[in-house]
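Bit of a strange request maybe. I'm writing a small parser for structure token strings and I need a real example to test against, not something I typed by hand. Could someone generate the tokens for this chain?
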Amino acid sequence: MKKSLIALAVLSAFAGVASAQSSVTLSGALDAGISRSSNATTLKGAASSRNNLTFSGVEDLGNGSSAFFTLNHRFNVQSGTQNGQNNTTAANANSGDPAAQFWRNDWVGLKNNDIGDVRLGRMLMPLQELNGGFEAWYGGDTVASVHTDGRGSNNAQSGLRTGEGTYLRTANFGGFVGHLGYGRKSGGGQVDTVAPKGLGATFTFGPATLGAATDTNGNNKKSVGLYGKYNAGVAIVYAQFERSDSNDVAATAKDKRISISADIPMGALTFKVGYRNMNRDDVSGSAKKLGAGLEYALSNRTKLYSNVGKTSGSDGEVANVGGALSAGNITTATNGKKLSADIGVWHKF
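Reply from user aminoacidic:
Good idea to test on real output. This should exercise your parser:
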């Protein structure tokens, strides 16, 4: 709490008394499609991050300073229910509580254009905040996604978000932006053994962006990630590398994940392709995934998409329908193969 008050005090010093101009925005997205996997066909959205309703606002405080807020609600397009509402584990009490309508993200903050901004509330830690921008399917969307997923941060016992958190982000200093996050131990209904924390940075120079981050979640599981993106004109190439403590609470093994993907634009049509490899120190073998997809832009807000993903190897992920890694670690299970496909429409507003 003291750190939160200090951060607010620093930024509030730059907020001049002025005749405030404010704005409130309602935005979001709807994604509905047909997904087929394991001989089952379902109507669903590609990912919860696409099906959302977000309230955000900014108030000009003068002298280059402003106040802002965000309330983000995620929902299931096939049923209209809150995303995560059926998850009733103690560690994810917020998602299991139907009254927790904004459990994904909610914060209020202050910003100074020359210094940076601070957020207070419920939010992602830096590694998970950054890594979604370095994958062709926006960090976990659709069955083709090869996102590395920030596994250590996405621990089933503590969650990738933190409640009662503080997040500091610097202004852009010649292409460099720094990130620092800190949460209270067992804050926001979570069951933590330590206070979640993390730091990261991105550096953009010309068509290239590099990123690095590390998070320690509430179960004291650590993840380290290195990221890159390069816009070559004919294609945007993405790369991710993450090494994390095993998702198993009692395990001391390390998970390693590498992902390479690309967007190849051709007018209104964008072709996507990607590859991911995952292995674990104490298990022989690895899990591999190939993904490919097409997006067709009907407008700046509406896209049609179709994707296919193929997983193989000794991994619980082979049984996973979605693009993200889910909760399954590499195991000694018999090798398997799985092919999944989807087709749908995505509209942003």
